[in-house]
Design a protein that fits this description.
six-stranded mixed sheet; 109 residues
């Protein structure tokens, strides 16, 4: 199981799912974890279906300058990555709107 410690948290990703996403989309665990370091990232509850646990979606810019949405769940001090994919058009719009809004605030200061 790929495991990485970052920000004092442990990030893990189940082997078969990691291998599938890595092969299909080319995302490494390091790149996925870097999304959580984006100051403009947006995290929302994943309400696409009832998963039996609270899943979250974080959309942010990765260290490879790719906009990625990460599905994940927090279990104690561990962040369990469920999957990662390109954001929907709505997630993209929300991300860029937030980024633009924050840039306006910085320019006014």
């Amino acid at each position: 199981m790929p495991v990485l410690e970052f920000f004092g948290l442990i990030f893990e990703w189940h082997d078969p799912k990691f291998e599938l996403v890595n092969a299909k989309r080319g995302y490494s665990l390091e790149e996925i974890v870097s999304v959580f370091d984006d100051d403009y990232s947006i995290t929302q509850e994943d309400t696409r279906e009832n998963f039996g646990e609270q899943r979250l979606l974080t959309t942010g810019m990765s260290s490879q300058f790719r906009l990625i949405t990460v599905s994940w769940v927090e279990r104690g001090d561990t962040v369990r990555i469920i999957t990662a994919f390109s954001p929907s058009k709505q997630q993209e719009r929300l991300y860029h709107a937030r980024h633009k809004q924050n840039n306006r605030r910085i320019r006014k200061s």
